[in-house]
Amino acid sequence: MNRARPHPHDVLIALVSFGVGLLFWALGIHMNLTGAAALRGAWVLLPLSLMAVLEVFRRTHPGAVLALGTLVLALDQCTQGNVATTTMFADLVYAAVLYGGDGMARRIPFAAGVVTALSTVTYLLVFREAEALLLGAVVALVTLTPAITGSAVRNHRKAAEAAELRAQQTALLAEMDRAQAVTAERARMARELHDMVANHLSAIAIHSTAALSLDDPGTTRDALAVIRENSVEGLAEMRRLIGILRDSSGDLEPAAAPTLDGLGSLLGQARTNGLDVTLEDNRTTGPALPAPVEMAAYRIVQESLTNALKHAARGVVRVELGQADGRLTLRITSPVGAVDGPRAPGSGAGLVGMRERAALLGGTFRAGPEDSTYGKIWLVSAELPVTESESA
Known about the structure:
There is one protein chain. Strand 4 (about 365-370) and strand 5 form a beta hairpin. Helix content is about 65%, strand content about 10%. The two termini are about 50 Å apart. It has a five-stranded mixed beta sheet. It is an alpha+beta fold.
């Protein structure tokens, strides 16, 4: 709101009030009926005009116009008085409480109550008649009533604004939650797509390159067999993933979640693709692992084998599983050195996906080159909590 420019409604109130007051004066209707007015006749129009001018600024400068309005009302008591002038003063009290600051909104009703009480007591002491209570009621009607009304309207408006603000904040939080959920779901689907398909596509790329570069019918036939097998499995994985995306109920996801029981077939597929893989499962028998842990562990092993297929030198790829102190440990090593034959390019998305899977379960992940008794190796190590409260 532009506080330098009066509101059109305030201008209209001032004009109408001045017109009504002018009509009362023309008809000879006055408030001071005792005949003791010091200023008579047209003098009553002076406070009427001044109060109308103050009405124009009731919203933009509520405190100042109330202070000036009090002086104008005192001036009006020196004339024959006008109902419109007194009514406009009451409106200034109402506007000061409604549009003024918080301190003003607290002080004015209290001050109006004190003025009403003192005025009533003073009238009783001076006139010593019960009718003096009517004068106190008039003071209350001009000061206390508009102050209380303004305070009630102000509190209602503040409550409405607070409710609107809470609604906006709730809508904003809901939108943020929706955006985060969409982002998390996109990241999850990206990990699934990469982990399920990258292994097959890497094998296809490597063996197709070998088939094209070697003029050997036997090698070509073997390479084409591997290509066909990975193509069929990759196509099945893609169809399953597309089915999950199209199924709004999400019923397809639990049945498709892989577990560590499927490591045998996963390693068999890796051997078909040309890797020399060994598995050392040092886990002790115990309660079944939570489904999220099983799936994350399977995907980490799967992606590690895919990276070994693309980047590892000739040698043994070792997969080791262990479980102790409430944590499942994964350790996948592959030889580092000169690479013979074709290799598929990497993008680094696999390492990001494995690290995200471990972090989502509250586990740890690291990958990098190390020295070992087998020589220079690339180590992928992960620890995942296996309790439901930690991994849910």
